Amino acid sequence: MYIDSTTIITIASVLGALSAIGAVAYKAIKWFQQQEKQTKDIEELRKQEKEDIKSMEDELCLLTYAILACLKGLKEQGCNGPVTEAIGKVEKHINQKAHGQD
Questions:
Q1: What percent of the chain has pLDDT over 90?
Q2: How many domains does the chain have?
């Protein structure tokens, strides 16, 4: 068997084509893996966001009750007018939230 320049060029072309196909396949696999990782990361972020929102809602509820307590304390000390109006608004807000109304 005689190996001439044409055979060498053909072998080199085949190896080059196989390398190119392998590189494209490798990049495609890496891209799909990256997309899968991003999907998982987004799911984790959404879960964390829901937990954070729930925590913030709980904290806001506590602060609302604390403000109401302060306003009622002021009213007991004789403050009227805006204090009475604010107590009414806070209680109305609490009742609407409790019953899912706007």
A1: 80
A2: 1
Give residues with Cβ within 8 angstroms of 68, minimum separation 6: 87, 90, 91, 94
Task: With 0.70 as the threshold, say if the pTM is over it.
Answer: no
Local structure of 49: helix, strand or coil: helix
Read off the tokens for 37: 């990782």
Local structure of 91: helix, strand or coil:
helix
The CA-based angle 79-95-53, given to 5 degrees, is 105
Domain of residue 60, residue span: 5-98
Distance CA 65, CA 57 (A): 12
Q: Of how many residues is the chain composed?
A: 102
Encoded amino acid at 68, one letter: L
CA 50, chain centre distance (Å): 8
